[in-house]
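FIELD: query
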Amino acid sequence: MTTPFSGNMTEREFGALYERAVAAADGGTPERAVELLEDLIVRRTVDVDVDDAQVIDLRMYLGRALWRCGLLEKGIVVLRSAWADAVRVTGPDTRLAFSCAGNLCRALAENEEFEEAIDIALDIYERRAEVFGELDNGTLNSLGHIAQICFRAGLKEQAVDFTAEQLDRRTEAFGENDERTETSRYNLEVMMSGLDFDEAALRAKLASYEDSHGEDSEAVLVLRAHIASGLERVGRLEDALAERTIIERLRMEVHGEVAIPTLAAAAKRLHLVLRLGDSRAVAQLQAVAITVARIAGPDHPLVSYCTDLDW
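FIELD: result
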């Protein structure tokens, strides 16, 4: 007989729901993760205090799910609180504290609070390296966070340098063919192409990734989006529209029609349609905004992206 664990839920049931929530937070349905994690937190605090390490872990994933939903300010508040409690309960140099801080700095970067995000990311990396070593997987992930934040902040040369360093160290730690090493290699190529839009090189990489990972893999979709953005920057709007249309179709196949990643892809395509002179896209963008508001709430930034057309 299995004994109750949290709120009339067995330990096995709790663990299964936790895994579903984490997968949703990191996948295409972070809004679903918010619901699951809030339920898990309520159930777990039946047995333990809110500052129990496991509850802090759940709160961290809740903050992560919120910022991945686009609810950045709410996510940042949750993550700041979780980080402070993790430091107080487990110490400043534990994996839980580092994970909370890492999620916080990424959420801050998404909210374009780059200075604080970079400060936190650099501090995490230096202390992780001291505690766990320079070739620890978490330490190398922190190095990648610094690179991604720099890239988002427009510090592209610094981002390339950090990513190149991560690639060298991941190669040393895990080997040339490890998936983590390949991810660094991919990120480096994308960042380098961001310094100078090289469509031919990106197309060749796209074909390679389609062969190795499949046309609907996340790596391929991200690379397609990068190509589309480059085409927009150089004024080739019709070519960019063709890419955005493919991305929307693939997102729909992967996530379903009514999911935030698909709706975001649709909104980006419709913005291009509008820029090309087809005013019918306005009504379609409004429909996307209504759907997003129903799924993730009216404060989701995708709602304003669809309705703020004064540009």
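FIELD: remark
The longest strand covers residues 4-6.
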